[in-house]
């Protein structure tokens, strides 16, 4: 295994054998600054690809917007799955806030104030679900705002 790793490491670092007056065994290092940059870039890119490939949304973030859904998966997969996979978020908190949104104002009162009170009640009943929801929505809003409108 060492025989495979050493040539691979030398190739990645840009160090190779070159013919010179001293013979074919002389080693000439490449410019160290560009070698460091190449190594760092390829390692980071590989890590991002592996991380992105490893996470798939358990349910679509957006059932009507494929571009937004793709962004949420690539940039906020862990956060979105954190809410979708937790019944305290996906069932309890989300259903509670949906009920707030669908509830008509009572007695001709201020719909905005009633909904705000309802949302505050959901937050106090389901604090763990709200935290997971806020993490998911916050991530998508900050990283996918340009495609999720």
The helix/strand order is: HEEHHHHH
Q: Determine the N-to-C terminus distance.
A: 51 Å
Q: Report on the biggest sheet.
A: 2 strands, antiparallel
The tally of strands reads 2
How many domains? The number is: 2
Structure classification: mainly alpha
Measured by DSSP, the beta-strand proportion falls in under 5%
Write down the Rg: 26 Å
Q: Strands of the largest sheet, in order across it?
A: 1-2
Mean pLDDT: 73
Low-confidence stretches: 1-52
Measured as a percent range, the helix fraction is: 55-70%
- Described by the principal axes of the CA atoms, the overall outline is globular
Count of DSSP H/I helices? 6
In short:
It contains six helices and two strands; from the N terminus they run H-E-E-H-H-H-H-H. By secondary structure, it is mainly alpha-helical.
Walk me through this protein's architecture.
- By secondary structure, the protein is mainly α.
- The protein has two domains: 2-54; 66-143, no CATH class.
- 68% of the residues lie in helices and 4% in strands.
- It has helices spanning 2-13, 32-54, 66-84, 87-102, 111-125, 127-143, and strands at 15-17, 27-29.
- A two-stranded antiparallel sheet has the order 1-2.
- Helix 4 (87-102) crosses helix 6 (127-143).
- The protein is globular.
């Amino acid at each position: 295994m060492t025989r495979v790793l050493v040539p691979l490491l030398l190739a990645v670092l840009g160090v190779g054998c070159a013919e010179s007056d001293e013979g074919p065994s002389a080693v000439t290092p490449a410019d160290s600054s560009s070698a460091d940059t190449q190594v760092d870039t390829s390692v980071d890119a590989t890590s991002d690809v592996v991380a992105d490939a490893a996470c798939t949304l358990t349910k679509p973030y957006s059932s009507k917007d494929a571009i937004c859904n793709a962004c949420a998966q690539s940039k906020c997969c862990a956060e979105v799955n954190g809410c979708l996979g937790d019944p305290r978020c996906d069932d309890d908190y989300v259903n509670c806030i949906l009920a707030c949104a669908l509830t008509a104002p009572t007695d001709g009162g201020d719909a905005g104030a009633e909904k705000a009170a309802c949302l505050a009640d959901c937050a106090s009943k389901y604090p763990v679900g709200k935290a997971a929801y806020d993490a998911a929505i916050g991530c998508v809003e900050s990283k996918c705002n340009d495609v999720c409108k």
